UniProtKB/TrEMBL annotation:
Residues 11-322 form the Enoyl reductase (ER) domain. The gene is qorA_4. The keyword Cell inner membrane does not apply. This is Quinone oxidoreductase 1. It is an enzyme of class 1 (oxidoreductase). It comes from Gordonia insulae. GO terms for molecular function: mRNA 3'-UTR AU-rich region binding; NADPH binding; quinone reductase (NADPH) activity; zinc ion binding. One of its GO terms (cellular component) is cytosol.
Amino acid sequence: MAKAVRFHQVGGPEVLSWETVEVGTPGPGEVRIAHEAVGLNFADTYFRTGLYPAPLPAGMGVEGAGVVQEVGPGVTSVAEGDRVTYTGSPLGAYSTERVMPAEHLIKLPDAVSFETAAAMTMRGLTSAYLLRRIWPLRSGDTVLLHAAAGGVGLIVTQWAKLLGLNVIGSVSTDEKAEVARNHGCDEVIVYRREDIATRVRELTDGAGVPVVFDSIGATTFESSLKSVARRGLLVCFGTASGPIPPIDAMQLAVNGSVFVTRPALADYIADPAERAVLAEELFSMVAAGHITIDINQRYDLADAVAAHRDLESGRSIGSSVFTL
């Protein structure tokens, strides 16, 4: 038996419940993993609220790190005792132990701790595809990054600086602005008192930026679109403030023949070989200290309700994890 966070109906944080569950034995292609740390991601709230539909009742969470306890028939990619991390379906990471498909597991180097892995596997791989797969960014380019003091934002900023990029970050408070600057942002816009698009145009001599990375969604879409340079790209990879509004194709022309994409991490790590390449690049930079992972919030797994409330309130800075 194990303990897990589950939800039986969609809604606010209060629908999460701490339950005793039966783990079971891994079947073909599956493993049983004992978690050492579990990731807390804003995407978790999308499942809880029903924005991302899931059959109910359901487990919660898609990211964890731990040790393989048992392997099922046909599993050759990992062995009992391996240190592993993962991100992706099926739901159920908010648990002390679980059975899950082995195909999602990534072997974890000894130089990367379980907590660090749980704090960065989703965020780090997201940062990897944003910077390495979406657009042919070149040294000297300037990008606009929303939520620059968030978990993804801090990794993207550090990685972007390693690639020679200039980063304009947007944040909600002066405290977060300081954090963003300390991690490499060249300019920071506090959007509660500055107009983002106006400031971006000022900082780029009216040209705008070739790429905008927007994880906020509804409240930032318009300013993001107005910040993109001619024939540039708006990357809408999150909806923290709500879904992006319907796109009028003519507005893309009016704003400079710009492109818009709404990518999902799953499509950039579906190929195990590509996932391995991105993970290796990420892990090597973290192990070498070129990218630091700030874990600023730690929770007991039983305190998932409080963790979700903190996450949705905007109080969180950097990454959050559940410790076991």
